Amino acid sequence: MRLVGVAVLVLLAVATPGQAFEAGVKTLESRPGVTESFLLVQPETVPVASVILFAGGDGVIGLARAGNPNWGRTNFLVRSRSLFAQEGFLVAVPDVPSDHAAGYGRFRVAREHAQDVAAVIAELRRQAPVPVWLIGTSRGTVSAANAAARLKDGGPDGLVLTSSVTRPSRKITDSVHDVDLGEIRVPTLVVHHRQDGCVVTRFDEAQLLPRRLKRAPHAEFMAFDGGRSAGDPCEADSYHGFAGIERDVVQAIAAWIKK
């Protein structure tokens, strides 16, 4: 892995008065001839852990072009990145790699995708000697689960799956069941909204996921209610994206990780 370029910008992502987080875009060579860019957000204090946040959809958040999340700014995890930093986490938000600039597609379940994630994990461990957790939402759960299942050396210390994709559709060709969930050997938290109306992220199916994690030392399911929902039930401004209760969800995830 080689750091091939760094573009830094300062974001005043303020959640409470007097609190700002510095963020920069880092670019790594994750595979020969392939680069992986991610947005880095630093907490005000020494990190208690690091988290890598995987957006859903096609995964394109536009870091290489704009240096700031574009499409992904509305995604639950991307828009909540400063909330995770407030919890004392060093936060990385990866974009698609350079050889999949149009979007992940089926690449989310590929071995090479896990290699890209491993490069980001290694960089975070270089910056802070603390546990690294993968957190995915919607189709991002496929990326997070794939990396956790494949990476035995240099892999994550834990996994969180929010609004998990549990079945394919005509547009969505992959789900968490395309990953060998039995190979995940780290603590795993599954988080879902009871009123999630997206056809590929069913609450009743998500509840069953901890049973599939037979080698995880601890697997737990956490349900949420409330918030608001508008527009497409599979988009971020809905129960699927924990709209209106982002802080509650992030605080609950953070508490689970810290314990």
Give a short overview:
By secondary structure, the chain is of the alpha/beta class. The protein contains eight helices and nine strands. It has a single domain, classed as Alpha/Beta hydrolase fold, catalytic domain (Rossmann fold).
Q: What does the model show?
A:
- The chain is of the alpha/beta class and 259 residues long.
- The chain has a single domain, classed as Rossmann fold, CATH 3.40.50.
- Helices cover 24% and strands 23% of the residues.
- The protein has 8 helices and 9 strands.
Which H/E pattern describes the elements? EEEEHHHEHEHEEHHEH
- Write out the CATH superfamily name: Alpha/Beta hydrolase fold, catalytic domain
Whole-number total of structural domains:
1
Structural class: alpha/beta
CATH class: Alpha Beta
Taking all Cα atoms into account, the compactness measure Rg is 17 Å
CATH level-3 fold name: Rossmann fold
Mean pLDDT: 89
What is the count of DSSP helices, taking H or I runs of 4+ residues? 8
User: Would you report the number of β strands?
Assistant: 9
Helix content: 10-25%
Query: Could you tell me how far the N terminus lies from the C terminus, measured between alpha carbons in angstroms?
Result: 32 Å
Strand order of the largest sheet: 1-2-3-5-4-6-7-8-9
- Specify the overall morphology: globular
CATH architectural category: 3-Layer(aba) Sandwich
* Percent strand: 15-25%
